């Protein structure tokens, strides 16, 4: 069974909105991001993320990171889209069931970028196995915050790995430990962020 990993860029004051405006990647962090992305099979995302990614990267070529995003399969949760492009497939009327099926398939782990409204469903249904937070050394001031509008009352986090980068960023990896009445144990074992 493969895992669903959520990786999110976060400012020191907890902002996740519009990281393209404030997240700075140097050579080391860019190489690490590309290496990690290559360790995943496909993306899972909501409609807003899909449309933003498509607008920002759908026509971009010549950058290894963007090129890899383009060729990777993308599974999109949406109640309004009827069709997709850019190697994307709609998850259908029950996205939780579809994600659970994807996790049951063989292959490399799945990746979801950013905390979004879709997390309300994924956390509720205990489908995210790990959270990787890239803490950036910047104070943004305003914008959507990490886990804003997501009920995390049944979610616990167990630190499983940490990595410091030369640019001052810190990557913290947490295993999800679901504590609601429907959960019995942690959904994931300790792994490394270097995959």
Molecular shape: globular
Mean pLDDT: 91
Task: State the end-to-end distance.
Answer: 16 Å
Q: What portion of residues is helical?
A: 10-25%
Q: Helical stretch count? A: 5
Q: What is the N-to-C order of secondary-structure elements (H for helix, E for strand)?
A: EHEHHEEHEHEEE
Please outline the major beta sheet: 8 strands, mixed
Radius of gyration: 16 Å
User: How many strand elements?
Assistant: 8
List segments where confidence is low: pLDDT < 50 over at least 5 consecutive residues: 182-195
Q: Strand pairing plus helix content: what structural class? A: alpha/beta
Strand order of the largest sheet: 4-3-2-5-1-6-8-7
Determine the strand fraction and express it as a percent band: 25-35%
Short description:
By secondary structure, the chain is of the alpha/beta class. 24% of the residues lie in helices and 27% in strands.
Structure characterization notes:
- With 195 residues, the chain is α/β, with parallel strands linked by helices.
- The chain has five helices and eight strands; from the N terminus they run E-H-E-H-H-E-E-H-E-H-E-E-E.
- It has helices at 27-37, 47-57, 64-71, 95-104, 118-124, and strands spanning 4-11, 40-46, 74-77, 88-90, 109-113, 130-136, 155-164, 170-178.
- The chain has an eight-stranded mixed sheet with strand order 4-3-2-5-1-6-8-7.
- The model is unreliable at 182-195 (pLDDT under 50).
Fold blueprint:
Elements: E1 4-11, H1 27-37, E2 40-46, H2 47-57, H3 64-71, E3 74-77, E4 88-90, H4 95-104, E5 109-113, H5 118-124, E6 130-136, E7 155-164, E8 170-178
Helix pairs in contact: 1-3
């Amino acid at each position: 069974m493969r895992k669903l990993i959520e990786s999110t860029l976060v400012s020191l004051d907890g902002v996740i909105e519009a990281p393209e405006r404030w997240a700075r990647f140097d050579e080391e962090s860019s190489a690490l991001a590309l290496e990690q992305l290559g360790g995943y099979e496909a993306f899972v995302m909501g409609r807003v993320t899909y449309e933003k990614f498509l607008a920002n990267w759908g026509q971009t070529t010549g950058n290894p990171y963007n090129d890899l995003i383009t060729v990777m399969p993308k599974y999109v949760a949406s109640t309004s889209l009827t069709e997709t492009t850019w190697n994307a497939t709609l998850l259908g009327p029950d996205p939780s069931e579809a994600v659970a099926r994807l996790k049951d398939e063989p292959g490399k782990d799945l990746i979801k970028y950013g905390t979004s409204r879709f997390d309300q469903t994924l956390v509720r249904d205990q489908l995210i196995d790990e959270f990787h937070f890239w803490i950036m050394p910047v104070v943004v001031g305003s914008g959507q915050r990490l886990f804003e509008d997501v009920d995390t009352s049944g979610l616990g986090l167990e630190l499983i790995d940490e990595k410091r980068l030369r640019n001052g960023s810190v990557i913290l990896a947490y295993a999800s430990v679901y504590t609601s009445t429907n959960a019995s144990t942690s959904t994931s074992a300790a792994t490394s962020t270097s995959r």
